[in-house]
Specification:
single chain; 141 residues; alpha+beta; Alpha-Beta Plaits; 4-stranded antiparallel sheet; 7 helices; 20% strand; globular; binds ribavirin triphosphate; binds magnesium ion; metal ion binding; kinase
């Protein structure tokens, strides 16, 4: 297993629930390190560009509407097998199908407002980290 970086977003619903700390705590307890972080209120252009792969999907408009509905916290997580580890911690896209004890099972109720985003592959992690952070905003430790 290699040390990887992945892009995590705490989505507007989880920020509104005041769950930022509890969610970051799960990453840290699982051995992932936060090496970059910021709070942003995404514009439609930023959210649409981030989720460009879903542009033709029927849920795209709702997804952009939700992601721009309030502030988010974007972070770069670093650690062994970070991409898959983060996806495991998050749980299934639909919280109703997410395994007990996962972030989405514990903090989300609907597939549209599902608490967190995580990169799904090395290629998307590289693109997504660069989408939000310049090299000098990432602090290896
Ligand atoms: P994310 O990108 O946000 O980490 O979520 P994901 O990989 O688990 O799911 P993805 O397929 O990339 O979809 C992105 C977001 O779009 C919404 N979605 N709605 N109604 C639907 O069938 C549907 N499918 C996806 C979800 O909010 C999902 O997080
Ligand atoms: Mg995805």
């Amino acid at each position: 297993m290699a040390t990887e970086r992945t892009l995590s977003i705490i989505k507007p619903d989880a920020v509104a629930k005041n769950a930022i700390g509890e969610i970051i705590s799960r990453f840290e307890k699982a051995g992932l390190k936060v090496v970059a972080a910021k709070m942003l209120h995404l514009s439609e252009e930023q959210a649409g560009g981030f989720y460009a792969e879903h542009k033709e999907r029927p849920f795209f408009k709702d997804l952009v509407g939700f992601m721009t509905s309030g502030p988010v916290v974007v972070q770069v997580l670093e650690g062994e097998d970070a991409i898959a580890k983060n996806r495991d911690l998050m749980g299934a896209t639909n919280p109703k199908e997410a395994a007990p004890g996962t972030i989405r099972a514990d903090f989300a109720e609907t597939i549209d407002a599902n608490a967190v985003h995580g990169s799904d592959s090395p290629a998307s992690a590289e693109r997504e980290v660069a989408y939000f952070f310049s090299a000098d905003e990432i602090c290896p430790r």
